[in-house]
Amino acid sequence: MQVFHMARSKSKPKNGADEWAILEKLQPWVVRRYFLIKEHFRDREFTPEDVEKLFEMKRKELQEKTGKDEPEFTTKNVGEVLSILRKAGLLRARKDVYDFRKTYYSLTFPGETKVTRDRLISLLKAAADQIRGGLDYKALLVFLFYKAISDRWMKRAQNLIKEGKPQIQAYLLTNKGYYRLFDEESGRLYTWHEVVKSRESIKELANALIKISEMNEELSDLKKLVEVLGLIGFIKEDNLHKLEEIVRIFNRVDFAEFDSDILGDAYEWILSYFAPQKAKEGEVYTPREVIRLLVELLDIEDESDVLDPASGSGGMLIEAYRYVREKVKKEDPGAEPAIMLYGQEINETTAALSKLNLILHGIQEFEIFEGADSLVNPRWEEELRRNGVEDGKADYVIANPPWNQDGYDEARLSDRRIKHIYRYGYTSKQSADWAWVQLMLHYARRKVGVVLDSGALFRGGAEKAIRQGIVEDDLIEAVVLLPEKLFYNTGAPGIIMVLNPNKPGERRGKVIFINASREFRRHPDVRRLNQLAPEHIEKIVTAFRGFREVDGFSRVVGLDEIRKNDYNLNVSLYVFPEEEGEHIDLRKEFEEFRKVEERERELVGKAKVYIEGIIRVMGDE
């Protein structure tokens, strides 16, 4: 019989003596299989079928190497191996809450079986790679949302069953307290695992999403997304293997174990992962660190309304909510923020996805208006009035509107219903930047935070006239120049402008200019991009809140100086980073010079001797 030896100096697990002690009591053939399973699956869950495939792969590998059919790695003893390892305490098992006939295993050692945020992101990357070239990436967002609400729904139902509720009653109560995923008329369950449990049922995934949208008014956009993203057309035999792989990847994770922030981060990760590709197609994605900087500059308060008239995927609104929640929980860990979020997005698909994004982040108090152009049809005003806000305005208005959007001149903006919004003047057809600023100012009760192209600070013509009016009314509190290459769709540096109709007395008649063009680090994932780090954000926010002047970084400028500069707000005109002067050690430099001089004298002396010798030889001839 072959004896299995384990070299303690090399093979002993660093997780501790417990695993080692267990392994020493097992037969060598079991230990070999344990290490094979451990090497392959590590922190992932697996089924007996997965182990069968692994053993078969190993058998073929050994067969090719030795030319023999190795019976020790047949698939016949998988059940026995798993049983031995489980009894020994090396494996843990759990039943599928959706199908109690199915068992999932995971390793007890090392203690890394919990799926971390990084592990979740790696799984999403694997799923994202499956849809490249075959399906719009937005479908992955829908799958993530569906799986997440299904897992949460099932966890609620299972908890009720554990409390003694009959299954159907538990389902009905879960429908009532959460979303409706159980069809009470047909008695059919529409959770993720129920729908994707077989190859045939996976084909009904799109129809299940449509059914869920019909059962839940707040999820009615799912039906639209199924149609727009072409899910029904994609789910065909030719693509079924891709969908099966996505299902397999998603089934490794129980999303009910993650809090809303991690799930929301996963959603945001998908958006950022595809941002470089989609930027080439015209889609705009605002880096989350830029949003964080903007929100911290505004210092949004609890019990306020926040509006984003160009809300996109909802990132600005979500970060505003997160910021307020952090402030609230510092004072009372059990408290939740009491803010209302409003957004408007002209692209209906993007608007629908933003609602899913907000829901995954655990945000309930929001209203997204879709399919309407904010510059000519601001639909939120009527809704705010309905909600008891008499002036139809929000406390804070934030946005990264489309830069240099064309087609918004007087002919477009002078309609009697909206012309009062643009009281500083109409923009030219070439750029609507200052139309967006005026729109946001009109609807802001406290502050405005806007991300724009830096050209908006100094372009002439109609834009200069609008800029002059806003400067003279003392509405601009800060202008921040951002580093270049922060945005996926342009290498140009953007700017953040903070406007405040209610400046405190000590800030009136002044604007703080912050040149943050050098405050960046290299992006960890996209080689050509830069990124704001937390320390950069802190430096900018500290200077703004203290209205603090820092040489080469920030400067407080009076309106008189801005007038002298003909209302040019270009940050570099007021504050420019100091060049890093080279420190010269005169003593060291002089010593180096002296050594060089001595060496030169030495070489000249040698050259003289050499030349004199040549002259003597030539004279003798």
Task: Please summarize what this structure is.
It contains 26 helices and 15 strands. The chain has 621 residues and is of the alpha/beta class. Helix 7 (138-162) packs antiparallel against helix 15 and helix 16 (288-298) packs parallel to helix 23 (534-545).
Describe the fold and architecture.
It is a single chain. The chain is α/β, with parallel strands linked by helices. It is 48% helix and 12% strand. The chain has 26 helices and 15 strands. The strands form four sheets. A nine-stranded mixed β-sheet has the order 7-6-5-8-9-11-10-12-15, with helices on both faces. A two-stranded antiparallel sheet has the order 1-2. A hairpin with a 7-residue loop joins strand 13 and strand 14. The protein starts with 7 loop residues before the first helix and ends with a helix. The relative contact order is 0.06. The model is unreliable at 1-17 (pLDDT under 50).
